[in-house]
Design brief:
heterodimer; A: about 260 residues; mainly alpha; 12 helices; about 80% helix; B: about 240 residues; MetI-like fold; 9 helices; about 0% strand; globular
Chain lengths: ~260, ~240
């Protein structure tokens, strides 16, 4: 109710009306006749973007847990490599990483006959394993840093209580330490996941046809510039909104005392 | 090893000179965009804090949209809009189509993206200034711009610098996205060098090292800047909550 009332203040009604006029003007004067022809491809692209996002976020997060743990409590021979990995990933552009992995590894693999004869070779000749690898590594690098802080921020008393109950190290980690660390990291993770969504169009540069690549193709085929890009921006806004909603629900599962 | 040194040498058979020129372009754009973003951010933060309801709502739309849409898409949209507008203007004034310099286009495009993030960072920093300081400035009858220059900016520096340091690192890395529009910054130069010599690993690793050097040096610079801006304030670590 309060949200609705906030929307109905006079200046907002005028702004919403202006926006509606703008939308109608866009719908009437801009060219949208290409949509039916490209709709199946666009849906496939949307599906691929979402799928790429989910896989790389899940895999990247699974990698981030040991990376964060190694930096928070690991001995030096684990913490130094983990920290350098995070620094290198965070210090270089993702586009460069994607190209290094795709063109670099892609030109290296064919030189080894045992790779060319292996079962994996048909997959390694396609672009998507490299895209998933690069995006996963990037997410793991950023989140490793986040998880380091989260692991360190769990109150000591909680871990001591777990020990007092006689929990084994693994049980303590699984039941007490990890859930609390994830809970403190959730707001940051939500923001980082939206950043990961914004990173997915980069894989279009290595010939993966996701949402952004479809828009580029429309532009190249029909020379229509603005319409596909506007629609694309709208789609990204919608996905980002859904992600923000999911993370807010996740955060609300545990009540916070302030 | 010999081969690598030859490939990376600065004189023409090697491609090192091209990489360094790309790095210069990247840094130029990053600096320009960061500065442009700071100007937008300062204006935006003041607008969000002290502006009327319409200004505030418009700024909220700006920061939300820019932060939710991928930079790559924004870069394309702003690039086409910018070059269209300039061409229309120059045709209306009777000149022909103009060639837009890559550096200017990059600064314009990335600056608008950076402005949205800078707005949020500076807004938070201004809000962290004790209210009494601003009230005291008002009580002395300072005009708004003088208050901004003498009170608000110095007082918010220590709160804003960590966020701005992050933003600068994002600016240096976002210049790589301009490679997609075909602008000759470091990543694009690297790809050209790599694809014409087939030495992909050598060149991409060399470019990665250049970016990493820039990142590490800037991190050190900002740490010093923060220590300078914070001087006289109690260190954060010793504050007991």
């Amino acid at each position: 109710m309060t949200a609705l009332r906030a929307l109905l203040r006079p200046h907002r009604i005028v702004m919403i009306a202006l926006f509606a006029v703008l939308v109608v003007w866009c719908a009437v004067t801009l060219r949208w006749d290409w949509i039916p022809r490209y709709a199946p491809l666009a849906l496939e692209g949307l599906w691929r973007t979402v799928w790429l996002l989910v896989i790389t976020v899940v895999l990247g997060f699974l990698l981030a847990i040991p990376l964060g743990l190694a930096q928070a409590i690991g001995p030096w021979y684990l913490s130094i490599p983990a920290r350098s990995f995070c620094t290198v990933i965070r210090g270089t552009p993702l586009l460069l990483q994607i190209w290094l992995i795709y063109y670099g590894l892609g030109s290296l693999f064919p030189e080894y006959p045992w790779i060319r004869e292996s079962e994996l070779w048909p997959y390694l000749r396609q672009a998507w394993p490299y895209a998933i690898f690069a995006l996963t590594m990037s997410y793991a690098g950023y989140e490793g840093e986040v998880m380091r802080g989260a692991f360190a921020s769990v109150p000591r008393g909680q871990l001591e209580a777990a020990e007092a109950f006689g929990m084994s190290r693994f049980t303590k980690f699984r039941r007490i330490w990890l859930p609390q660390a994830i809970q403190t990291a959730l707001p940051t993770l939500g923001g980082e996941t939206i950043l990961q969504l914004k990173a997915t169009p980069l894989v279009a540069t290595i010939a993966i046809v996701e949402m952004y690549a479809v828009a580029s193709r429309v532009r190249q085929d029909t020379f229509i510039v603005y319409e596909p890009l506007l629609l694309l921006a709208l789609f990204y806004l919608a996905i980002a909104g859904v992600l923000a909603l999911i993370f807010r629900k996740l955060e609300e599962r545990v009540p916070v005392r302030r | 090893m010999q081969e690598v040194i030859e490939l990376l040498s600065l004189s023409p058979p090697g491609w090192g000179g091209n990489l360094l020129r790309g790095l210069m372009h990247s840094l130029q754009i990053a600096l320009g965009a960061f500065g442009f973003g700071l100007v937008i951010g300062l204006a935006g933060a003041c607008g969000k804090l002290y502006g009327g309801p319409i200004t505030r709502d418009l700024l909220a739309v700006y920061t939300t949209v820019v932060r939710a849409v991928p930079e790559l898409v924004l870069i394309l949209i702003l690039y086409y809009v910018g070059s269209d507008l300039i061409n229309k203007a120059s045709e209306a004034m009777g000149y022909g189509r103009v060639q837009i310099s890559g550096v200017a286009a990059g600064i314009w495009v990335l600056g608008i993206v950076q402005g949205a993030y800078a707005t949020e960072i500076l807004r938070g920093a201004i809000k962290a200034i004790p209210v009494g300081q601003i009230e005291a400035a008002r009580a002395f009858g300072m005009p708004p711009l003088m208050m901004l220059r003498r009170v608000m900016i110095p007082a918010m520096m220590s709160f804003a610098i960590p966020g701005l340091a992050n933003l600068w690192l994002i600016a240096t890395k976002d210049t790589a996205l301009l490679a997609v529009v075909g602008f000759n910054e470091l990543t694009q130069e690297t790809r050209q060098a790599a694809s014409s010599t087939r030495a992909y690993f050598t060149f991409f690793l060399a470019a990665g090292a250049l970016y990493l050097i820039v990142t590490l040096l800037s991190a050190r610079f900002f740490a010093r800047l923060e220590a300078w801006a914070r001087k006289g304030q109690p260190s954060l670590r010793t504050v007991k909550v």
